[in-house]
Amino acid sequence: MRSPACSKTPFRMSCRLIAQGVTLSAGALLAAAPLAGAATPKPPSLCQQVAAQVWQSAAAVSDRSLSPWVAAVKTDDPGTWGPHEIAVNELLRHRLEAQGLLFASGPNSILALEHLPGTNVYMGSTTAGTAHCQSAMFAEVGADGFARALPEPEGYTGPCWNMHGNLGTVLGKPAYIEAGTASSTTDDTVTRVTPWTADGWGRACQVTVELNYKFELRKQFCGEQAVCLAAGAIALNVAADYFAYRQRPTPLMKPIDRDQQIPDFQYLHGGAMSTQGPAAVSDAWHILARQNQAQYPGAPLLYGLYTSVFPTFGYHAANDVWDYSFSYVDFAPFPLMLDGHLYLGAVGHNGVGWREGSRTLIAVYEAPGPDQHDLIPLAGFAVDRVPDGLKGTVVAEGGSAVPARPAM
């Protein structure tokens, strides 16, 4: 049997069990008897128990959900509040307003209350900003009916965007839970758990569920059929290469005007590259810069904030501004050879501004010249990275890994 691979993390230890050649189940690992003379092992944490359940029910996690074992409570309806909820609301609203996190009126005036099952513990939270950042405080109602502030759970990080915090239960035990995806571009899930104990908040732990993936071409938009057919044949390969490019610790960059850097992504499987390829990419960036400065006169020249329009040739969907628009994060024009002709490709994730989704968008344009005012679209492709079974789980113990907040 292959031993779990362990590495240091912000928690004391992170151990990965990969389902290759493993003949002993995670449940058996947790229940294994100690060696003779060894100290009695600590009981498994809630995260270890959830990880064991994940391994035993791998198919259940393919929908990004740990719902069989992790359950968040619903927000309390103010119309049903009793004396405890009224006392907590008064305490936490005053404290959040004092810190400028909650206001008396307007969109940032809503305080959501949640009740931890089986306890007199409550969480009051508000969500605000373009990053949907959540600010929360905690309180407990004593036997005298008065609400008293509690410290934050160890696993509380003030989550944003792809993560959210709730009170709830983990395997039936009360806990503060932060759950979501490991990033906005993956279906791998992160669940941080801080259990509530007889002595207050316990130690935090974390379960990361990693999945295998496959790329699927979900939609294509054709302006010129021959180009669309040729580019469609390689769209999945472009998406896979772009994913590998972004997985590097430091994706390759190259200089452009005023010592700025632009992504140096290249798709090199379309035959001999034209010597005009780099010039076409440079011309494309300059076109996008001129368009931005025409729309925003006096705006600074920042190539990392520019994207082209993803071509759909008149197609509209309910959420097409998100589904079929480029995020500017690592948006990358690149030279593309199709049937011996040079075109301009562009690849990035769907989204708006810095916000990214998990879909890869690929566009094909005519190779631009230096005096061109716009990019001429020929084809567009939407490629999804689809979960394809369980890859592994990572259990981290003894602390909370705090993710960086995105810029507001």
Question: What this model shows, in words?
Answer:
With 408 residues, the protein is α+β, with helices and mostly antiparallel strands. It has two domains: 47-203, no CATH class; 214-386, no CATH class. Helix content is 19%, strand content 35%. The strands form three sheets. Strands 1, 2, 3, 8, 9, 10, 11, 12, 15, 16, 17 and 18 form a twelve-stranded antiparallel beta sheet that branches. It has a four-stranded antiparallel beta sheet with strand order 4-5-6-7, with helices on one face. A two-stranded antiparallel sheet has the order 13-14. It starts with a strand and ends in an 11-residue tail after the last strand. The relative contact order is 0.15. Mean pLDDT is 86; it is low at 1-36 and 400-408.
Number of domains: 2
Number of strands: 18
Contiguous helical run count = 7
What fraction of residues sit in β-strands?
A: 35-45%
Structural class: alpha+beta
| Radius of gyration using CA atoms only | 25 Å
Strand/helix succession? EEHHEHEEEEEEEEEHHEEHHEEEE
Q: Give the helix level as a range of percent.
A: 10-25%
Low-confidence stretches: 1-36, 400-408
Average pLDDT level: 86
Distance from N terminus to C terminus (CA atoms, Å) equals 47 Å
Shape designation: elongated
Largest sheet: 12 strands, antiparallel
Labels describing this entry:
single chain; 408 residues; alpha+beta; 2 domains; 12-stranded antiparallel β-sheet; 4-stranded antiparallel β-sheet; 7 helices; elongated
